[in-house]
Model the fold of this input.
Amino acid sequence: MTVSSAPGKVYLFGEHAVVYGEPAVPCAIERRATVTVEPREDDHVRVEAEDLSIDGFTVEYSGDAGGRPDVDVPTPLVDAAMGYIDAAVDQARDALGMPDAGFDITVESDIPLGAGLGSSAAVVVAGIDAATRAHGDPLDPREIADRAFRAEYEVQDGQASRADTFCSAMGGAVRVEGDDCRTIDAPNLPFVVGFDGGAGETGELVAGVRALRERYGFAARTVETVGDVVREGERLLTDADPDEDASDDLLSELGRLMNFNHGLLEALGVSSRSLDNMVWAARMADAYGAKLTGAGGGGCIVALDPTAETETALRFTPGCEDAFRAELADEGVRAEDDRAARRREDEGEER
Ligand code: MEV
Done:
């Protein structure tokens, strides 16, 4: 049995625009998806999802190409999650050169699904790592990132950038521009996340921005302006000392750019009333800045605030279901086999 985990992320800057070749800076956060894999004798894939912030579900389906769960699961989010797991299995089989490899897979995640925190990327990254290690053939994190991107690209009908998957595989702050993906030595940032309990449909939201961009020159320029904001933010981050806490000046400047970025995303039609409410609650609580994170339409915002004020304000904001501080996750994808073995031993001793 092999166990891998990979972190979720927030976008400091640049979601949506990154799909059109502008740079983006996502940052991995300490909320992880954990995938356990056991190879099977046959070519079937059995998936058990313990906690995807929705009711748990268990399905069994054939490993044949195009195989789908043999149960009728109505939740679109569950369908979406299955699509990502399917695609991760395909990538692992391809990497292993074992098109008929079967797996028992268990997914646990403390990243809300479809809420802008990179849940699908984390599941795909951890899944590919666990499945390839299960056959004694571990992949380098950059190859995992590349394969996870291909999986997301397929599930999202070509509407995906490398940002989420690269960030989840590598950890820390990263910069992605087209195929050019790099890690950034950034200082730790005081992220606070607000979650409205909802989710956006990434494919539809990306398609909406694409349509606007094709129709109006000013929408295309809005997308380019997001790129300008990102370049400015990236300059600030790379000039800062990664070993020191972010200074007040740095946080003020980053916060101003986050506010700007949110306004541009709002203009591109991907915010929502609850996201705007949470952004404003954070600003009124004196956060340095706040913006939606991820595809938008519902889900999460991210704010910068080292004090408890923003988290408290968000908890009292209508439409906000959860608020929490999110630490930067320095580690990307990692093996959890030892931890899992220790947990099993502890459980054995308790019995
Ligand atoms: C979704 O988390 C981020 C988007 O930029 C899409 C992508 O980069 O794949 C909206």
